[in-house]
Design brief:
This protein has 438 residues and is of the alpha/beta class. It has 14 helices and 20 strands.
Length: 438
């Protein structure tokens, strides 16, 4: 074969494999907190943003596929930093449900709602690592997986009594057991380590603080960051003092104070909200208003709606003696999340969606509404679910804001989410790595 023919073939290969898309004439909300920019354009090359700027400066590359988005709004994809993948079918949680098919189905549902990345928080099976590796080797067309793999609790600790959760986390009672578990977990390269630190309002066993501290230290030795499910102020403070990376829920037993703010600031501890998780603890005690909301209905099976709307399910929730407290926990979570944000603590976007009756995709939009009700502006909410949450993941060079070099993970809307965050529901299309996934 002569050299010229070889070069020609090579050139053809490049022309075929390079895929260039141009989006034109939309209002850009880039996730940086900047004001929306009307009449914007973007060039996406092989899934990454090559250029974004004013339409007037656009130079359309030859052979590009052009999408006209006149009148539309483009915002970054939603990053959810606290979800649970694969364990639920209908309303039943069981680790045996963790199949490729079930995980993919859930990641597709997230993507349908504009959620382009999810951090699964400690309830995964080993299959998650294969699926993550496959995604990272190419251009995913479903939500991106981040994982804490198999999380930690104490012996018989919360949440091992929750239906379907026995055997899901490591149960550790000594520093030696922590080290052995960490030696098994770390080579799988989880993105984070998860600990459940809770007694479920005195009903279950809570992991002792010193064991949690040993987990944080063992993780750190392996270069891993630890996120903790906390409920109580005292646990948040004790673990932040020991170098916890993130509180994976808001403090709900009392108002946070300056002492906690100072220690979180000093150690760079992040706070996640998961406000909608609190809503889910009491929303189904009666017929939840959103059971008739088409935006909810399209993402769930008719049998789930029938069950949640039925008397038996509602009676079971009403039978929980702690039910009257749950709305107060939501209010406290909202107050504390906003207070920490205002004090300059780093906050990320999280919902705890995935477990039974905590609906992937829909709940991310509910979380935004609960954040708005807590006093966050729409621009702050968008920045938190994109730029800040990418920073949390350590993925700021690839994800978050819509800027050159980043993956084209984005949501096209028909109405402006900056004027009302509920407009984030007006989804026209969703892109992950430049692939149109909806
Ligand atoms: Zn969780």
């Amino acid at each position: 074969m002569n050299v010229r023919l070889l070069l020609t073939l090579f050139a053809c290969t490049i022309a075929v494999s390079a895929e260039t898309m141009v989006l034109r004439n939309f209002t850009l909300i880039d996730g940086s907190g900047k004001a929306p920019a009307a009449a914007s354009a973007m060039i996406v090359n092989d899934g990454r943003i090559q250029w974004v700027g004013p339409l007037a400066s656009l130079k359309v590359p030859p052979g590009a596929q052009t999408v006209d988005l006149s009148g539309k709004f483009v915002m970054p994809g939603i990053i959810n930093l606290h979800g649970h993948l694969g364990n639920v079918v209908e309303l039943t949680q069981d680790a045996n449900n963790f199949t490729r098919q079930n995980v993919e189905k859930q990641l597709k549902t997230y993507a349908e709602y504009g959620v382009t990345s999810v951090l699964s928080m400690g309830s995964d099976q080993p299959l998650v690592y294969d699926m993550r590796a496959e995604q990272r080797a190419g251009r995913s067309a479903i939500a991106r997986i981040y994982t804490a793999g198999k999380g930690f609790t104490g012996i018989n600790g919360y949440p091992t009594a929750v239906p379907g959760m026995k055997g899901v986390p490591y149960e550790v009672g000594t520093a030696a057991a922590v080290e052995a578990a960490m030696n098994e977990l770390a080579p799988k390269k989880p993105d984070f380590v998860k600990i459940w630190v809770d007694d479920h309002l005195g009903k279950e066993k809570k992991i002792p603080t010193e064991i949690s501290a040993a987990i944080i230290a063992a993780a750190r030795k392996k270069g891993l960051r630890t996120c903790a499910h906390i409920f109580y102020y005292e646990d948040a403070k004790a673990l932040a003092e020991r170098g916890l990376y993130a509180c994976a829920h808001s403090v709900r037993d009392r108002e946070v104070d300056n002492a906690l703010i100072q220690v979180m600031k000093k150690n760079g501890t992040w706070q996640l909200g998961t406000l909608v998780r609190e809503l889910s603890t009491f929303a189904f005690a009666k017929r939840a208003d959103f059971l008739d909301d088409p935006f909810f209905v399209k993402g769930v099976s008719p049998s789930i709606i029938a069950t949640l709307g039925g008397e038996a399910y509602q009676k079971r929730i009403q039978g929980d003696k702690d039910l009257p407290q749950y709305p107060k926990f939501l209010a406290m979570a909202q107050k504390n999340f906003k207070k920490l944000f205002d004090a300059g603590i780093k906050v990320g976007f999280a919902t705890d969606s995935g477990p039974p009756a905590r609906f992937s995709g829909f709940f991310e939009h509910k979380e935004m509404e609960l954040m708005a009700a807590a006093g966050f502006t729409p621009t702050q909410i968008i920045t938190i679910f994109s730029k800040n949450s990418a920073e949390f993941l350590g993925a700021s060079k690839d994800l978050g804001t819509l800027e050159a070099g980043h993956w084209a993970d984005m949501v096209v809307l028909s109405r402006n989410p900056v004027s009302d965050i509920k407009n984030a529901r007006t989804i026209e299309s969703v892109y992950i790595a430049g692939n149109r996934v909806r």
